[in-house]
């Protein structure tokens, strides 16, 4: 009975937006040489990873390691995103809060990047992913990492790209703080 209650409470905590720490998928700490964000950011930029989707913590952690390795091969300093949303509905810490990402040139110093794991050019992310992103945004505002008057945009609004996929972009346009321009 106690074990069942603990599992239910753990699931509830995750459903309420517990952020899975970077240390759960990456043994390498963030380099102190990566630039920090010194003020609340005003922009949230949404991406998709165009990788295989993931549906449980083990799969998601494998995909996270693959994304980081790809970013490092492309001469990024680390994984480029601040957070990633798994198909299991969990929020995975990439760089985390307060660290300047490498996800949207010209906008990195004034934004956080949230990537949905998978490809959303041909379909919409599952509802648990959408809810996790909404929860993460609430956490970011509550922790004063993002301005309450933030703007929400898709990566394609910052440069010529199909990211975050047309289906995800169309969904974002329905969200309260979506803006047509960054």
UniProtKB/TrEMBL annotation:
<dbReference type="Pfam" id="PF01510">
    <property type="entry name" value="Amidase_2"/>
</dbReference>
<feature type="signal peptide">
    <location>
        <begin position="1"/>
        <end position="17"/>
    </location>
</feature>
<protein>
    <recommendedName>
        <fullName>Peptidoglycan-recognition protein</fullName>
    </recommendedName>
</protein>
<dbReference type="GO" id="GO:0008270">
    <property type="term" value="F:zinc ion binding"/>
</dbReference>
<dbReference type="GO" id="GO:0008745">
    <property type="term" value="F:N-acetylmuramoyl-L-alanine amidase activity"/>
</dbReference>
<dbReference type="GO" id="GO:0042834">
    <property type="term" value="F:peptidoglycan binding"/>
</dbReference>
<dbReference type="InterPro" id="IPR036505">
    <property type="entry name" value="Amidase/PGRP_sf"/>
</dbReference>
<dbReference type="GO" id="GO:0045087">
    <property type="term" value="P:innate immune response"/>
</dbReference>
<dbReference type="InterPro" id="IPR002502">
    <property type="entry name" value="Amidase_domain"/>
</dbReference>
<comment type="similarity">
    <text>Belongs to the N-acetylmuramoyl-L-alanine amidase 2 family.</text>
</comment>
<dbReference type="GO" id="GO:0005576">
    <property type="term" value="C:extracellular region"/>
</dbReference>
<keyword id="KW-0964">Secreted</keyword>
<dbReference type="GO" id="GO:0009253">
    <property type="term" value="P:peptidoglycan catabolic process"/>
</dbReference>
<keyword id="KW-0399">Innate immunity</keyword>
<keyword id="KW-0732">Signal</keyword>
<dbReference type="InterPro" id="IPR015510">
    <property type="entry name" value="PGRP"/>
</dbReference>
<dbReference type="InterPro" id="IPR017331">
    <property type="entry name" value="Peptidoglycan_recognition"/>
</dbReference>
<keyword id="KW-1015">Disulfide bond</keyword>
<feature type="domain" description="N-acetylmuramoyl-L-alanine amidase">
    <location>
        <begin position="31"/>
        <end position="165"/>
    </location>
</feature>
<feature type="disulfide bond">
    <location>
        <begin position="54"/>
        <end position="60"/>
    </location>
</feature>
<keyword id="KW-0391">Immunity</keyword>
<feature type="domain" description="Peptidoglycan recognition protein family">
    <location>
        <begin position="17"/>
        <end position="159"/>
    </location>
</feature>
<dbReference type="InterPro" id="IPR006619">
    <property type="entry name" value="PGRP_domain_met/bac"/>
</dbReference>
